[in-house]
Amino acid sequence: MPTLVLLALAGFGAQLVDGALGMGYGVTSTTLLLLAGLSPAAASASVHLAKIGTALASGWAHWRFDNIDPRLVLRLGVPGAAGALLGALLLSRLSTEASAPLMAGLLIAIGLFILVRYSVRPPRESVARVSPHGRRFLAPVGLIGGFVDATGGGGWGPVATSTLLTAGRTAPRTVIGSVSASEFLVTVAASAGFVIGLGHAGIDWLAVAGLLLGGVVAAPLAAWLVTRLPATVLGVAVGGLIVLSNLRTVLGAAGVDGPAMPVAHGLVLVASAVSVGLAVRRLRAARALAAAPAQDPAAAPQPV
Q: What does the domain layout of the chain look like in residue ranges?
């Protein structure tokens, strides 16, 4: 029972971040399961089975809050499902020794991307509630995002959400809501691939139940928070957490151990703290500029 409660809390926190930011559930949950000792394929399979329920709940909640563009969901989700199926079948055939550092390295790459993207140059924001992008742009994004999501235990949000926000042509709430809804298609396809590759014996059903329980509870709250929380700060925090959690596996595979390990973790913590500080400072400056009254040219002092 304590294990189930801890998994439910992990699922709640991961879904809260994912629903508000459009990313973070898969990579955060997979990282925790890897630390608990699950194999990469079993961790990714368990997370994706849990995400079937959480993605459905999240999509429904975002639809209730009018955060979804249905056409964007289909144009992104269908190729994403194809990429996820291929990625799940591939990961199921890799050995644990080969796939553990590979997955950790992929998660670190995703975490670094999120960390740098949201601290150095936050995405531009648009107010368009319908995405202007066509299939030529969305199909490759969905295919790559689905493949990375299945092989990395998460990554649909970091690829799809970040790409669409970076393009700056769709309102953030629509991007996040539509990506969250399309994740249901990606998750079903990835789960099917893992069941084909691993069978039912390779899945940790306790982890599935705990993550599902916490995620379903958090989904409505996350959909409401999507326009309330600063995405920049959340993005930096998620990126730093992912990098920090997977650093030990990658360094261990590279033969780095001893005093170098805590030093590396310390550097990541310092970098994350600095990034959060920069993000908060930029956010406060933007709010102060928006709140400052416009100066009347007639009231300005005239040169003598």
A: 2-290
